[in-house]
Specification:
The complex is a heterodimer. Chain A is of the alpha/beta class. Chain A is built from 17 helices and 13 strands. Chain A has 2 domains: about 25-110 and about 235-285, 3-Layer(aba) Sandwich (D-Maltodextrin-Binding Protein, domain 2), CATH 3.40.190.10; about 115-235 and about 295-325, 3-Layer(aba) Sandwich (D-Maltodextrin-Binding Protein, domain 2), CATH 3.40.190. Chain A has helices spanning about 1-20, 35-50, 60-70, 85-90, 105, 130, 150-165, 170-180, 190-200, 210-220, 245-250, 255-260, 265-275, 280-285, 300-305, 305-315, 320-325; strands at about 25-30, 55-60, 75-80, 110, 115-120, 140, 205-210, 225-230, 230-235, 235, 240, 280, 295-300. In chain A, the strands form 4 sheets. A 4-stranded mixed β-sheet of chain A has the order 2-1-3-11. In chain A, strands 6-7-5-8 form a 4-stranded mixed β-sheet. In chain A, helix 3 (about 60-70) packs parallel to helix 4 and helix 7 packs across helix 8. Chain A starts with a helix and ends with a helix. Chain B is mostly helical. Chain B folds into 2 domains: about 15-55; about 55-290, MetI-like (MetI-like fold). Classes of the chains: A alpha/beta, B mainly alpha. The interface of A and B includes residues 4, 10, 20, 58 and 219 of A.
Chain lengths: ~325, ~290
């Protein structure tokens, strides 16, 4: 009898849990993997200004999140670290096609760039992309076939080479191939590459987003590593968008817009800067001047003609990346 | 098949001299290999989990566990286990009963079905529910119009967990019940017991240790499941994150102490399971063996 009761309780639990929460003033923000600290602080500040509002966070790889949203994850807003994943939502009819015009700076309230982390004292004297192609330098970044992070690295190196060799494709390819040849292991994701570099002690330089290198230095000891910002890198946008289909269903469009707007306010920008992200607000950017060395950034649009073209020319099967990756 | 651990001891009980037929050196080599292997692959990682968890002191350990999202992950994991394990006890007994005591068409098919969760990757198990309940799937629109949330909510996590842990109880009971046969039940029936009495006073006492054993394994897996749950969870902090998922998240955030602190709880659970299992075997070893038809 007891067992039957238990089963009854369990079934009741299932049914209860299946009833959706009331439509109070709340938002679900689907965000990239390592953005937890940032959004914990952003949400706290936002809720102080807008009491009574709840903001839930879902963090995972943004491609996985985009897919989950299409399958029914009720995220009102997305704060991603890759434009193509928002474009995927556009194609599925969840986000309006001109989302990049809804918010300033291409709907990217903050940005970052592929940057370097070297061992303390910089024993191999690594300053710029040229040094990564040198013989005897071991470079660590994840596999661009599986990691969005590494795709930025690949594109940044390619953009640099394009300028250096004035667009001579053969030379660009040779240069990037040399860097790839210096990678002893290709991990599947950014976190695994960090482990390889920091915990297994492999490699002379780790390439990842600048916002990451600060977190790594913090976790593993600032005395063990130092950051090196190359002369040129690629602008990595962190796109934000209202998921129209979900927000309209939940009736949260207004709140969603207020929330994303908050990321552009001086208060929001300051929190972002403290978390290792570069911001556009001039006053706030000036405050963090020492933290972020000067760097010239090229955009995917200018250097490669947009994400769709990049996908076709570089990342599609048997495109440039496959050739270089196969050349190792 | 059901539990190789216990079975493998049996020849020693029957014939204590059987293990002594190898030469002394061979025994030493085999034992050394076994111990070194287990030490490196099981004990060492376990020690490291606890070492990393306490790397920044006891205070940091408890502070990291006292985090809102961590507490909610622990709560959710317990909730899922509390729902999934009893369900699987009921399903497991029913399935084992049907297979062991009745003859019917499709019995082999049912046995294969029960084994299915063992043979498919947990990620696929999770994906099945996405394909079934997802917004783009067959049942998705209907569920949505009725306001029922399954995917990316607690029910989805429970379903995925029930699916991957289903075989543990059933697989434990089927061989046990098969060995016992239907003699005891038939005797009880012929003496006038009704169906419930037969179950309560004859079958249940016969299978209780096997059942408990299955529950332990089922519970350990239910709390530790990662792959299937990861697919259906939606990873909403404080709402749909279970402990194993939370470990990954904390680790990815460079929060090593937090990650290993939660991992140490899971490891602790594994240790408790192991100890309970050992105690069960020590105290009721004879009875366990007896119910296994010896």
């Amino acid at each position: 009898m007891k067992r039957l009761l238990l089963a009854g309780v369990a079934l009741a639990g299932l049914v209860l849990a299946a009833v959706p929460a009331s439509a109070a003033e709340k938002l679900l923000n689907a965000s990239y993997d390592v953005g937890r600290e940032l959004f914990a602080q952003v949400n706290k500040a936002f809720i102080e200004k807008h009491p009574g509002i709840t903001i839930d966070q879902s963090h995972a790889g943004t491609s996985k999140l985009a897919r989950s949203i299409v399958e029914g994850l009720g995220a009102d807003v997305v704060t991603f670290n890759q434009v193509p994943d928002v474009d995927f939502l556009v194609k599925q009819g969840f986000v309006s096609a001109d989302w990049q015009k809804d918010f300033a700076n291409n709907a990217s309230p903050f940005y970052s760039l592929p940057s370097f982390l070297v061992r303390a004292g910089n024993p191999k004297n690594i300053k710029d992309w040229d040094d990564l192609a040198r013989e005897g330098v071991q470079v660590i970044f994840p596999n661009p076939k599986t990691s969005g992070n590494a795709r930025y690295t690949y594109l940044a190196a390619t953009a640099y080479a394009k300028e250096k060799f004035k667009g001579d494709e053969a030379q660009v390819k040779e240069f990037v191939s040399k860097i790839f040849a210096n990678v002893p292991v290709f991990d599947t994701g950014g976190r695994a590459a960090t482990t390889t570099f920091a915990e297994r002690g492999i490699g002379d330089v780790l390439i990842t987003f600048e916002s990451e290198t600060q977190g790594i230095a913090r976790e593993y000891g600032t005395d063990k590593y130092q950051q090196v910002v190359p002369s040129v890198s690629l602008l990595a946008e962190f796109p934000v968008a209202i998921v129209d289909k979900v927000a309209d269903e939940h009736g949260t469009r207004e709140l969603a817009k207020t929330y994303l707007d908050f990321l552009y306010t001086p208060e929001g920008q300051k929190i972002e800067g403290e978390n290792g992200l570069r911001v556009r607000d001039e006053k706030i950017a000036a405050e963090f001047k020492d933290k972020f060395p000067e760097v010239r950034l090229v955009t995917v649009e200018d250097a490669f003609g947009g994400w769709e073209k990049v996908q076709k020319d570089h990342f599609a099967e048997d495109a440039l990346l496959d050739e270089i990756y196969g050349n190792r | 098949m059901a539990d190789p651990e216990i079975k493998s001891y049996e020849p020693m009980h029957d014939n204590p001299s059987a293990a002594v037929t190898e030469s002394r050196s061979a025994r030493t080599v085999l034992m050394t290999v076994a111990f070194v292997f287990l030490g490196i692959f099981l004990l060492l990682p376990l020690i490291i989990v606890f070492k990393e968890a306490f790397a920044k002191g006891v205070g940091a350990y408890f502070a990291s566990l006292n985090d809102h999202d961590t507490l909610s992950a622990i709560h959710l994991t317990l909730l899922v286990a509390v729902i999934a394990v009893p369900l699987n006890v009921v399903f497991g007994i029913a399935a084992a009963w049907a297979i062991a005591k009745f003859e019917f068409k499709g019995k082999a098919f049912l046995t294969t079905l029960i084994d299915l969760p063992f043979s498919v990757s947990p990620v696929i198990s999770g994906l099945v529910y996405v394909l079934l309940f997802g917004a783009q799937a067959m049942l998705g629109p209907w569920l949505k119009s009725h306001g029922i949330e399954i995917l990316f909510a607690v029910p989805g996590i429970v379903l995925a967990t029930v699916f991957v842990t289903f075989p543990f109880v059933a697989r434990e009971l089927i061989p046990l019940m098969q060995e016992q046969g239907t003699g005891d039940e038939e005797a009880a029936l012929s003496l006038g017991a009704n169906g419930w009495q037969v179950f309560r006073y004859v079958t249940l006492p016969n299978i209780k240790w096997g059942l408990l054993y299955g529950v332990l394994l089922c519970n350990a897996r239910a709390m530790g499941e990662f792959g299937a749950v990861s697919v259906v969870s939606g990873h909403i902090r404080g709402m749909t994150n279970t402990m194993p998922l939370h470990v990954e998240i904390l680790y990815n955030e460079y929060n090593a102490v937090g990650a290993f602190a939660v991992a140490s709880l899971l490891a602790g659970l594994a240790l408790v399971t192991l100890i309970l299992k050992t105690v069960l075997e020590m105290r009721y070893g004879a009875e366990l063996a007896a119910t296994r038809g010896h």
